[in-house]
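Just curious. Invent one:
>
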Amino acid sequence: MGQQPNALTPDHSPQHRLGYVIRELREARGLSMRELATKTFVSHSKVQRWENGERPPKDLGEVELIDQALGTGGFLIELWQEIGRGTSQLSHVSDASSYVSDTSPDLVTALSQAAASDGEGIFVPRRLDDGTVVLVALNRRALLRAGAGIGTAAVAGFPMTVSAAAVSEDPFGFAESATSNWSGLRLSRPDPEFGVDWHALLPGGRSMLGSQFGLQVHPARVQNGRVVVSVPDQRRAEEFLTRPHRGLLVGAVDTGAATKFYALDSRAARAKLSKKGGIYEITAPTAYELDDLTYGILWAVSNYDDALQADDQALSETRSDLRAYERLSASAVSREAAPGLNTVAHMWLGSDFCARHILRALPDLPALPAFWTREQRGEEASAWLIFDHKLPYLRETTRTLGGTSTRAFCIPEEVVSSSPRHERILLFLAVALMESLGIHAQFTTDPAYEAVEGFVVAPNQEAVIANWVRGQGMWHVDVTARSSIVREFTIAARDVDADSITAAPTPAGRLRGLAQYLDLPWSWLIERCGQLAQHGSSGLIQSRSRLVSAAGIDAACAYVGSLPIYR
């Protein structure tokens, strides 16, 4: 039997020390062992072995995943490396000020006093990715948490007050603006900064795993309809822009009344760096202003892109292994068929398989079918905009049917009210993409239809089941003429067709009804989508995975931007 967590002695060995700190940081983050296991793509029992000191992470890749999941900025990697050396170079609390030298004197004093009260521990102050300084007491169960630049230290969960020192670290007000606009977004100042002004941690979702990138923020101005970003330190900017990881260059334009922020993908910005009048500058379109539209695109693309790129080789191998199911007219495949893949990779596999299943069955249906889809939120619906196979699939179904078709959605009011605005915009864009291809979208708000699987039905004759959204496995597909199933699908499709809340004779009318239901300003959508369509989204964010494409986003924005405002 391995050592139990409550028997850990952190001063016994670096291995015990690492297990102790992983457990303390996991609990401080409010994560269960199973939640940490999900974030690091391992089993629950492996997390237990990490934490009880029985078996540390096996390699650098594994400990990097833990470090990322717990947001410790490399600290856990340092502890893990001590295991190989068999020594500990952790500082005692007398050295705490060297770790937190940029925090307020009150904070350093509070940390030192708290440590001294224990009498005999090794204390490790460390700045987390969200800007928090954590003091880990290695010989007792305690985490003393306090924020950077705090005048009154927060110890063991007591309230914190922020001093003017924190404001000086955000000279353009970017962090304050971004985190107040988008709940779940976390920004932290790296220490040392190494050319990065901010680390951004984008939240995940029900299946998304979260993403991260570095940012540099510079002063900017609007000139001749373009944003001109001034880069005072060329070398620092070039070092940032040439790194392979995802990055955003942000220009801050002071309009007098407020500061507006404009973003450019680091790879796109690299090609635009130029010298004018002795000053280095980068230009960006005003269409890349950071608002709910562009943040939603950044959020969805980076989440999907990072997760798919991380599993690229394993995903390709798994897809090849599962091709045998294509010979079957019906199959239901558990996620256990691909246990090493992350949840986004499972989504992509299910979506891709269902699309190909429908395209194989579609020509044999005896009548013009009606489609039913289960996407309800922007996270799910953005797959239509981003997965590489989605736009070709929509085009091929339209070509095969030789004209228009209908696609029904069930989106209850509770789902709308609980969805942030950027997710509602993504849902709207996904539907707009369908309407642009002659697919008439219909909507019901009745929660009774939420359990209906995704289907394509030739009314009263035959049905194709193709479900990967919110299912138990990666997918469930079938082709059936069973009367009870066909009747259920036929009734559902006809009910929504008769009472769609967005019913209108034109695509613009239906989309305007959807915008109203989603509480999105119609004229703003047309204006902003039109602006973004002129420049494309690739300068805002560039994908790394071959399974991600911006074509759907750009096509949807171009279509919305062409719609009439007043009709």
